[in-house]
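Work Package 4 report. The design task specified in the project plan requires that, given a folded chain encoded as structure tokens, an amino acid be chosen for each position. We show below one input record used in the internal validation round.
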């Protein structure tokens, strides 16, 4: 029998990126052995480490490796070391370049509260939350025209019909697979792009009549998310609003070190998977970073890019098990349970598999 083999591009990046990716690779290997498929990794540089080596954050070589993979796992990019480089070559440019060049327009950011970690939730009495943020990732103000004028500067929010429609449809599809509630977040009282979003949502809702749709302005949405987090299911929104809301949702779950993400393009194209947390330069190299967000990102990869749903489920259950058993890295340690290192957490997940 020929074993299925998947090509994975590994971008460890900067700060704690290499540590958490190393942990995740061990977990992926353990799962693939159990499920009878192989993973072939190709490492490549992006972000600060690429600036150090090649003078630019994202090379064609890295892009080509990514384009020719089944999926990409990314740790984190950036850090204070590169804070003063020219804006055109900042480490973040690597992320934006990968998203744009790989056509990763759909960013899935689940914010799930783990029962075992509900103590860390900053909202009194809240013990569950399960929200999926679907963020448009290759348009809007992130990629609109920008520049300097004689006496100022400008950035522009621009969206085509097509860009809005494809992400709105994603939002509806994910809502259909969950509890059939979709919240659209915008600023339609001010922005013309938002008014177009609303028209397109109204139009698309005819094709998804089972889904109930709620519209919220971004300012109100940030309040409602704190006030009644359990009432949200799927949220679809623009690039910038999704950036902001996903940090807020993450903080409500109490543990930003736990949040995975997937960035997807058209079917059949490689997806990119990464923890939502950043490169955490203050703890880099100490072996104490929480590898779970990256490990959970691998579960998303198995599900969305490789179609290995059982493997994904195995990882998710193993993470549940270690949390229930009381293992805690420093970021989620609140005085109870056992304080562990990156490596100990990784080994525990592998054992729980
Ligand atoms: C994120 C980050 C990035 C973004 C930055 C690093 C460019 O905040 O992935 O949420 O704004 O998209
Ligand atoms: Mg962000």
């Amino acid at each position: 029998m020929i074993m299925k083999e998947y090509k994975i591009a590994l971008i460890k990046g900067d700060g704690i990126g290499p540590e958490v990716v190393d942990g995740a690779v061990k977990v992926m290997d353990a799962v693939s052995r159990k499920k009878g498929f192989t993973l072939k990794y190709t490492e490549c540089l992006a972000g600060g480490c690429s600036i150090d080596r090649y003078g630019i954050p994202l090379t064609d070589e890295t892009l080509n490796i990514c384009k020719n993979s089944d999926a990409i796992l990314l740790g984190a990019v950036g850090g204070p070391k590169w804070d003063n480089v020219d804006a055109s070559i900042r480490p973040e440019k690597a992320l934006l370049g990968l998203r744009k060049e790989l056509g990763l327009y759909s960013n899935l950011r689940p914010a799930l509260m783990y029962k075992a970690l509900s103590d860390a939730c900053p909202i009194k009495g809240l013990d569950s939350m399960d929200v999926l943020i679907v963020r448009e990732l290759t348009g809007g103000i992130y990629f609109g025209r920008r520049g300097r004028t004689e006496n100022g500067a400008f950035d522009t929010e621009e969206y085509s019909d097509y860009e809005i429609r494809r992400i709105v449809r994603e939002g509806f599809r994910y809502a259909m697979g969950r509890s059939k509630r979709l919240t659209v977040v915008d600023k339609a009282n001010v922005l013309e792009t938002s008014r177009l979003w609303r028209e397109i949502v109204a139009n698309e809702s005819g094709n998804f009549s089972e889904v109930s749709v709620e519209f919220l302005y971004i300012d109100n949405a940030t309040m409602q998310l704190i006030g009644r987090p359990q009432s949200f299911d799927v949220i679809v929104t623009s690039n910038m609003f999704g950036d902001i809301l996903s940090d807020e949702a993450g903080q409500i779950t109490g543990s930003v070190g736990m949040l995975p993400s997937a960035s997807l393009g058209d079917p059949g194209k490689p997806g990119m998977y990464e923890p939502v947390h950043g490169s955490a330069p203050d703890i880099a190299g100490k072996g104490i970073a929480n590898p779970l967000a990256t490990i959970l990102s691998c579960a998303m990869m198995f599900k969305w890019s490789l179609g290995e749903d059982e493997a994904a489920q195995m990882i998710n259950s193993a993470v549940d098990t270690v949390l229930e058993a009381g293992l805690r890295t420093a970021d989620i340690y609140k005085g109870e349970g056992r304080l562990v290192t990156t490596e100990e957490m990784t080994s525990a997940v592998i054992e729980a598999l």
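The domain at 130-252 is CATH 3.40.50 (Rossmann fold). Validation will be extended to a larger panel in the next phase.
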